Amino acid sequence: MTPGLGVWLYAVTSSRDGVADLNELTGVAGEPVRTVVSDDLTAVVGSVPLEVFGEQPLRGHLEDLDWLAATARTHDAVVSTVVRRGPALPLRLATVFSDDDRVRELLDERRAEFGAALALVSGRTEWGVKAYGDRAALTAAVAEARAANEGGDRAALTAAVAEARAANEGGATGAGTAYLARRRAQLSAQETVERDAAARAAEIHTRLVRHAAAGRLQALTDPALSGRRDWMVLNGTYLVDDDRIDDFTATVTMLGSEFPGIRLELTGPWPPYSFAGVEREPA
Q1: Which of 103, 107, 123 is closest to 34 using CA atoms?
Q2: For this UniProt entry, what is the primary localization, expressed as one broad class (predicted)?
Q3: Is the model more confident about 173 or about 273?
Q4: SS (H, E, C) 208-226
Q5: Residue 282: what are its φ and ψ, rounded to 5°?
Q6: Are 140 and 150 in contact (CB under 8 A)?
Q7: Are 140 and 259 in contact, with CB atoms under 8 Å apart?
């Protein structure tokens, strides 16, 4: 390895399947993408300047959102190309090793784990499902369901729904006892909606997993990072058999209509980042 260069990892695949010519691919530093082979495993890598992609410079660059977005797009473009050519495991962004020998050590040390993960993702792709809640609609749906279960009075239900909507929308406030009563009702409604939304999100995830080879719950996206003010209640990733994609997407559509007040958003297909299964700190 030329002094001043490190090795950026993009993906790991099976040597048995072979990796098609990668000469046309360029990586995050504009470098030609190449391979490092260790027996039955192949790492797709690129040689990158450490003055830009070394540990210390990377810390600064990763705080530059424009730089980070451009680098992530390039990394994902390489990964997506490799995945389209056969089963492959994407490596997380900014996995940099000192030289090819360190990459081979990774392949040797984690051979069994890489092999199991490759078997898991073979013939499958990753899909994302996000669920967003409408507080007023959820309050109305919960109230209606409870009234139906309890045989409640329809007039009382209508009044309760109207009051809940007014509370969620920050309706007019009065003074004294009336205001305090409305405030208590508002806080109670908010607490109930949070709990019920979580229960619905859990049910949706459970049912989606039944139609997938694997599923994982991801952290809910911070609105400050996503730029969206929607109330996210579910952020799930699912590994779906390629021949069952129609069944999975139909299930998402059905669940979207089955749970009033919750909107489902399906994205994909993606490289199986959530199911690569092997992580290690670079060296």
Answers
A1: 103
A2: other
A3: 273
A4: HHCCCCEEEECCCCCHHHH
A5: -65, 160
A6: no
A7: no
From the CB of residue 205, how many other CB atoms can be counted at a distance below 10 Å? Answer: 19
Between 172 and 87, the higher pLDDT residue: 87
**In contact, 44 and 35? CB cutoff 8 Å:** yes
Phi, psi for residue 281 in degrees, rounded to 5? -70, 135
- CA dist., res. 119 & res. 169, Å (int): 50
> Which residue's structure tokens are 């695949």?
13
Structure tokens at 23: 């000469």
CA-based R_g, the chain, Å: 25
The band of 162, judged by pLDDT with boundaries at 50, 70 and 90, is low
161 — phi, psi (to 5°)?
A: -65, -45
Instruction: Please name which of 169, 164, 170 lies closest in space to residue 185, comparing C-alpha atoms.
Output: 164
The pLDDT > 70 percentage for the chain reads 75
- With a pLDDT cut of 90, the percent of the chain lying above it is 56
The residues with which 214 forms a beta bridge, in sequence order, are 239
3-state secondary structure at position 170:
coil
Q: How many helices (H) and strands (E) does the chain have?
A: 10, 9
Say if residues 233 and 255 touch (Cβ distance below 8 Å).
no
- Cα 138 to Cα 127: distance, rounded to the nearest angstrom: 26
Instruction: Specify the pTM.
Output: 0.75
Lookup: tokens for 48: 């990158």
